[in-house]
Write a structure and sequence with these properties.
The complex is a heterodimer of chains A (437) and B (203). Helix content of chain A is 47%, strand content 12%. Chain A has 19 helices and ten strands. With 437 residues, chain A is mainly α. Chain B is globular and about 60 Å long. In chain B, 17% of the residues lie in helices and 20% in strands. Chain B has a four-stranded mixed sheet with strand order 1-4-3-2. Chain B has a two-stranded parallel sheet with strand order 5-6. In chain B, helix 3 (134-145) links the parallel strand 5 (123-125) and strand 6. With 203 residues, chain B is an alpha/beta fold. Chain B has helices spanning 3-14, 37-46, 134-145; strands spanning 29-32, 51-59, 91-101, 106-117, 123-125, 149-150. Classes of the chains: A mainly alpha (437), B alpha/beta (203). Chains A and B meet through helix 1, helix 8, strand 8, strand 9 and strand 10 of A and strand 2, strand 3, strand 4 and helix 3 of B.
Chain lengths: 437, 203
């Protein structure tokens, strides 16, 4: 008679990224049944979103997939813009694509690095974290924060590129390429690593489709579905990139697909810099006044100089001034905050500012609903927003790609050994912030 | 896929209870009566909608109402839009179907199926057997909105714990509501909450 027993893995287990509990039914060392219990990181994102104004949701989206926050910001803003019928300027769209692709690289680097570390390749983890650090430095320059970026705005982005950003990013990409090459040399043909991942955690095409799996996990199973290619948004239809596809759908293919996507994302960013319309951020137009002084002058009614001047702001919001506003935000005063110079220098700007920040005013999309899907780090990240014509969202639903990957996890675990769970679970890149919301 | 031709066929299968097609392209949606939902979804599954991209719900209890108190000195609130029409029932389930070509990797069609439900009696039948990921999605809808799907009696919560009281994404669930403390699974729940939790028990 065969006897099986139950084993709890998690919720406090070093390999359970974030917190998740796996309930395993084991026959010796072989897994014969598995169930995942999720929800340990539930933070009521959707309920919170309903209780604030439309713009208040953007910082919460940073906390969904916290290794690629910029994609979440952009996804939410695109959904609200679809509801309002807003088209953003070309430069803004390129900026969003650049931001998204940097985030996608950090997402994949974290996944591959953590997965390798859990299998004992600690050097690879350190190499890839070094590569990620350079990118986080660029994100910090661009948005003012390393992780909680909140870069996108409804109708635009926060600010234009800071001075010298392109060179910094090029330098960071050099590090990424170097580190990825080193990691590939250490892993791709490494017998120990390949034995741990090849032929393990196989997910076939049919099962993946039936469970609604998207992203690198689906692509590694041989379905080249990528939202950027299938339903191009922003300027992805103008960019030349490949969709890497695996064949076996095992952990090894997921690893290879992610590494290939890092290279494609870097290619996309490089093309963006070539194609992007020139911004006016570098134009030295008008006298430079320190921002605090500018606000003081405005409050005392001495607005004569302000209208022609430029605010000398903190480097964090560099590139959000009057000259660069037309490049980075749509010309829609009902959703886009005016620049500092306009707010303090003219009565119209001040009124526009108050109309957006006062209680009961703010962004009011027309009644209706919209669904917008973007390609997140893990797959199709969708935002379903419902408005009833007021300044607060009526409902914000996130379609988290992780949720679907986790729903199919048991299929990838059954039949393999306990030691393979760590490899398989690491390769699907579960992010608890997005899974539990 | 030609959605219009598909819908004409759907009318033949389901009969009344299917609304006209609204929206266009990938934003197209149809509204289906609750008792013909299963039949319609089965038909669409057979016709090639091989992926259930999402299943979610919206509670329309306070749709178009404004219940926030205004400060006395506040002028009347800006109303840019006329009040939206009254929804037919309280809850709307949204099945987001996707027709995915596995070879090309392109989305051939997207269709949202809206089903209105009251929330009091059992909701539409489960579609777990058509798309297995509906299992978790239906559990989430039950967890957050309290809509039971008929045909699956053993539904359990997914994001919250079993002892949670209420369904938090319903509009009548206050955002600041507290939940009772729960004890360990076996044994009585702790009813007396000490105000000095850090002091060790003297006995």
């Amino acid at each position: 008679m065969k006897k099986t027993y139950l084993l709890n893995m998690g919720p406090a287990h070093p390999a359970m990224h974030g917190v998740i509990r796996l309930i395993l039914e084991l026959d010796g060392e072989r897994v014969v049944g598995a169930d995942a219990e999720i929800g340990y990181l539930h933070r009521a994102f959707e309920k919170q979103a309903e209780s604030g104004v439309w713009n208040n949701v953007i910082p919460y989206t940073d906390r969904l997939n916290y290794v690629s926050p910029l994609i979440n910001n952009v996804g939410y803003c695109l959904a609200v813009e679809k509801l309002c019928g807003i088209e953003t300027p070309m430069r803004c769209q390129y900026l969003r694509v650049i931001a998204c692709e940097i985030s996608r690289i950090t997402d994949h680097l974290t996944c591959v690095g953590a997965n390798a570390m859990e299998l004992g390749a600690f050097t690879v983890f350190l190499y890839l974290m070094k590569a990620r650090e350079g990118l986080y430095f660029c994100v910090d320059k661009l948005t003012g924060a390393r992780v909680t970026a909140s870069y996108a705005r409804v109708g635009g982005v926060k600010a234009d590129l800071p001075a010298g950003f392109q060179e910094q990013l090029r330098e960071a990409f050099r590090t990424v390429r170097e580190c990825v090459r080193d990691s590939e040399a250490l892993l791709t043909k490494n017998r120990i690593f390949v034995d741990r991942v090849q032929g393990i955690g196989i997910l076939d095409k049919e099962t993946a489709l039936a469970y609604g799996v998207t992203g690198p996990v689906l692509r590694s199973a041989g379905v080249p579905y990528d939202v950027r290619r299938s339903q191009p948004y922003l300027v992805y239809d103008r960019l030349d990139f490949e969709v890497p596809v695996g064949t076996a759908g095992d952990n090894y293919d997921r690893y290879l697909v992610r590494l290939a996507e890092i290279e494609q994302s870097m290619r996309i960013v490089e093309q963006c810099f070539e194609q992007m319309p020139q911004g006016s951020v570098e134009l030295n137009k008008g006298q430079l006044i320190e921002a605090g002084l500018l606000a003081d002058l405005g409050k005392r009614g001495k607005t004569g100089h302000i209208w022609d001047a430029r605010a000398d702001t903190d480097p964090v919001i560099e590139g959000s001034g009057r000259t660069s506003k037309p490049d980075i935000a749509a010309d829609r005063p009902e959703v886009v905050l005016p620049s500092k110079e306009e707010t303090y220098g003219s009565i119209e700007g001040l009124m526009r500012h108050f109309e957006l920040v006062m209680w009961g005013r703010g962004i009011t999309p027309p009644p209706g609903e919209a669904y917008f899907a973007v390609e997140g780090g893990n797959g199709e990240l969708g935002f379903h927003v419902v408005s009833d014509g007021k300044d607060m969202p009526y409902r914000v639903r996130v379609r988290p790609p992780c949720f679907f990957n986790m729903a199919v996890l048991h299929k990838m675990l059954v039949g393999y050994t306990v030691a393979d769970i760590v490899a398989t679970f690491g390769s699907i890149n579960m992010i608890a912030g997005e899974l539990d919301r | 896929m030609d959605t219009k031709a598909l819908l004409a066929e759907l009318y033949d299968v389901v009969g009344l209870g299917v609304s006209a097609l609204s929206g266009s392209g990938f934003d197209a949606f149809i509204t289906v009566e609750q008792n013909s939902a299963r039949k319609a979804l089965e038909f669409l599954h057979r016709k090639g909608f091989n992926v259930l991209a999402d299943l979610t719900c919206v509670d329309y209890l306070r749709y178009g109402f404004d219940e926030r108190p205004l400060p006395p000195s506040h002028p009347h609130r800006l109303r840019r839009w006329p009040s939206p029409p009254k929804p037919p029932r309280r809850f709307k389930l949204v099945y987001r179907l996707l027709e995915l070509d596995p070879a090309e990797g392109l989305a051939r069609g997207r269709l949202a199926v809206h089903v209105w439900a009251t929330g009091k009696e059992a909701g539409p039948p489960s579609v777990m057997d058509l798309w297995p990921n509906a299992d978790w999605l239906e559990r989430e809808v039950w967890d957050m909105f309290g809509i039971r799907f008929s045909g699956r009696p053993d539904i359990k919560r997914i994001l919250l714990y079993e002892e949670f009281v209420g369904h938090p994404l319903r509009k009548d669930y206050p955002i600041d509501k507290r939940q009772p403390l729960i004890g360990p699974k076996e044994g009585a729940a702790r009813t007396v909450v000490s105000d000095e939790p850090l002091r060790p028990d003297p006995s």
